Amino acid sequence: MRWPFKTGSLFPANAIAVDLGTANTLIYVKGEGIVLNEPSVVALDRETKKIKGVGLEAKRMLGRTPEGVIAVRPMKDGVIADFDVTEKMLRYFLALIIENHVFKVKPRVIVCVPSGITEVEK
User: Is the pLDDT of residue 4 over 50?
Assistant: First the structure.
């Protein structure tokens, strides 16, 4: 059977694909491949909830955070467990990618989700 679409037509040239995993978050840019592979961990100030570290930097703080800082994994079993922290983590990672890449037009972001999740989890 022949593939009914032109190669790459389902993934626009200006697209960024995001895989929010429980362990790691991956970001793919068409034509470049995986440009980010970081642990899905965020370190936050316990009181203000401001970001103290994201990804590998935050993972290094797990179990040995200074007083007043907590390191959390916002994903659990493939779904978002903490929406606010996941949003902060995703914004941070996307800002890194957009800062280091030149897009001719505003990129389209595609997020992978597990097939067995509920509408609320989506």
Answer: no
Work out how many domains the chain is built from and give that number. 1
pLDDT 10s digits, 75-113: 998 888 999 999 999 999 999 988 877 776 778 888 887
Q: Which residues contact 19 (CB under 8 A, 6 or more apart)?
A: 25, 26, 27, 28, 111, 112
Q: Look at residue 3 and tell me if it is in a domain.
A: no
Q: Tabulate helix, strand, coil % of the chain (nearest 5).
A: 20, 35, 50
In a domain, 10, yes or no: no
**Residue 95's domain is classified under what CATH number?**
3.30.420.40
- Mean pLDDT (whole number) for 1-5: 44
Domain limits at 84?
A: 16-112
Work out the widest C-alpha separation in the chain, in whole angstroms.
Answer: 60
Q: Count of residues for the chain?
A: 122
